[in-house]
Each structure stands twice: as structure tokens, then as C-alpha cells.
Amino acid sequence: MKGLRILALTVVLTAALFGRSYAEDIKKVDGKEVHTVGTEKGAPLVHTVKPETSPVSGSASVGAFNKYIFRGYEISRGSMVVQPSVTVSYSGFSMGMWSNLDTKERWTQSSMTSDWKSYTGNGGTQGDPGKLGGSKNLNETDITLSYTYTIDKLALTAGWIYYGTGYVRQTEEVFVTASLDVLSKPTLSVYRDIGHYAGTYANLSFAHTVNLTKTVTLDLGAAAGGYFAMSDEYWRTYNATPAGQAIPLINGIATNYNGKKYQGLHDGMLKAAVNIPVGKFTIQPSVQYWFPLSNNAKKLVSDSNGTPVSTGDSYYKFEYNPNGHLDPTVVYGLTATLSF
User: Fold this and answer.
1) Structural domain harbouring 198
2) Do residues 268 and 278 lie in contact, with contact meaning Cβ atoms separated by under 8 Å?
């Protein structure tokens, strides 16, 4: 495991020194020069920089993957997910929509299922979360609005995201992104939750593009993220109450999640993707490797023998981070994109 971390860090540093940010790119599409700002969920925000025929640009895509990972958190397990997206932009303004279809929704270490209110811990009657879900479900649709302004080599983007999630409470974020068109083209994005899970997440990314042929390219990417300035009580970490003492109340509820609020380095990601033009479409097979960046990100609550504490349910363990722990995870899949 130590060797794997060293290898991952080496790739990240290599991308930082010699890379080109996968979060931003400039391409020719139907005679227009367009500026693409990537998002965490693969739905690019495309806006025209120097229109030669029309100021309107955009893209539509659909991808199929072995699982859905968001900021290192596993949102699906044991099923294929299908993720369609569409974006349209005009003179720097962009609107995008992204969805996730889970072919067999299950409770995971980081998320619930769309029938989460049926669990006894949420006021329902089902005591085993492993018995919830189990069916095909379109369990998330996000909407993103943004504006990008370019000053010489600096591209600045500000926007708003609505997370229409079925497996947890829906929420909103505002974000800003800065990308510098220099060697390694670093891109820094900061997201602030203004809904149910008030807190801040920051992500720094790099990438490198290699021409394999005249038309086929290889994208190599690396990113690191972390949490800070966590405001909502939701983010309090696990802190077992000593025997004989009353369990503290958080928002009127007795809970052992009463420790300090979760923050610090969180998730890392390495990515490789091949872009293959087929007519007006681009076909992209890709693979991502996600891994925790800190002990707290992967920490499970253990007893005196070091055994992770469990409620006895088929898929539920107590974790230091109330939002779930991270494991090293590989995501692979295929995406088809039409740009216009």
C-alpha cells in the first residue's frame, strides 16, 4: 500500500510539472473556438471564446461506468451506472444538466438509497439498510449555471449547482474556478454548500494530453481535494461517549457524532482517457483511480481490539466522517459526446 501511494504521488507531481489541466481546454468545433471548463461529474461547461459563425455552443453526452464516485465517496456499488449530460452556452454563460441512473441502487458506505426514509434510523420500519433499494433508479439530476470570464491567460468561472439527489437530502452549492494557461495549467475550484450540508470543498487539478495519432489523443489527469470551514452540525465526527455519561444532544438528537467537524485533505484521483473521434461524436474509454488523502478520510471507528464497530446491519459501520469513509477505488467506463 505504501508503494502504491508513492506511485500515485509521483504521477500527481509529474502531471503538475508537465501537465495541461483537464478542467480547461480550447478546441475548434464547427469553425468556432470554444473554451471548455470541466466539472467534477463530467458535464463540461462549454462557452464560446471567439465565435466565427455563432456565439452558441454546447455538448451532449452519455457515459456508462462500473460505479459512481463523487469526491471520493462511493455513491453506488455492484451495479452499472448510466450518466447522461447536456450543456448549452452563450457568450460566456453556460447551463448544464447531469443525471445518474443506477441500474441496481444499493446502500453504500457513503450514501443511502432513494427509499432512505424507510430505514429505522430515519423514522421508518426497516432495520437493515442492506434490504433497501435493489431496483433501477434515476436517483440524481443536477443543474449547473455559470459564467466564465477570460483575462489573457487567466480564466475565471463562477456558478451555482443544484443537486437533485434522491438518496440524500437535496442541496445547493456556489462555486468559483480559476485556471491559469501556463505550464501545467493548474485549475483551482472552490465549492461552498449553501443548503443542508454547509461547508467548503476545494479541488486542485492538473492534466496532460498526448497525441497518439493525428486525431486520437490520450488525456492524463490528477486531482486532490479537501474540506474546510465546515459550518453545519452534520459534519461533526464520531466521538464515543464514555460509559455512564449522557450522550450529547446535537440539534436536539442524542448522538455520538458530537466531535469536532470533519476537515482536512480528503480525496485524490488519477485519470487516463482516450479520445477517439467517430464522425461528429467523440468516444472516450476512461479509467480513474480514487484514493483517500488522509487517515481521517478512511477512518472507521474501532473497538479496543481494533475491530470496526458495526450496528449488526448487513452494510453499516460507524465511520469517523459522518459522510462515510473512503477506500481505494477504480472506476472505468465509456462516454460518447456530441459537440455543437
Assistant:
1) 2-339
2) no
pLDDT of 38 strictly over 80: no
Quick one: CA torsion of 82, 289, 339, 55, rounded to 10 degrees? Answer: 120
Query: Taking Cα atoms as reference points, which of 280, 256, 290, 208 lies closest to residue 60?
Result: 280
All three cell numbers of 143, joined, read 443543474
And the C-alpha cell for 10?
A: 509521483
How many Cβ atoms are within 10 Å of 340's Cβ, its own excluded? 15
Alpha helices in 180-330 (DSSP H): 295-298
End-to-end CA distance of the chain, in Å? Answer: 44
- CATH code, domain with 57: 2.40.160.40
Q: Alpha-carbon distance 49 to 29, whole Å?
A: 12
How many domains is the chain partitioned into structurally?
1
Rounded CA separation 59/281 (Å)? 10
Alpha helices in the chain (DSSP H): 2-18, 295-298
Nearest to 187 by CA among 8, 336, 45: 45
Distances (CA, A) of 94 to 115, 144, 193, 282: 33, 8, 20, 21
Residues belonging to the chain: 340
238-243 LR contacts (CB < 8 Å, sep 24+):
238/301, 238/318, 238/319, 238/320, 238/322, 240/301
Among positive and negative, which fits the CA dihedral 210, 189, 172, 289? Answer: positive
pTM score, whole prediction = 0.83
Span 270-323, pLDDT tens digits? 999 999 999 999 999 999 999 999 999 999 886 555 555 655 554 556 789 999
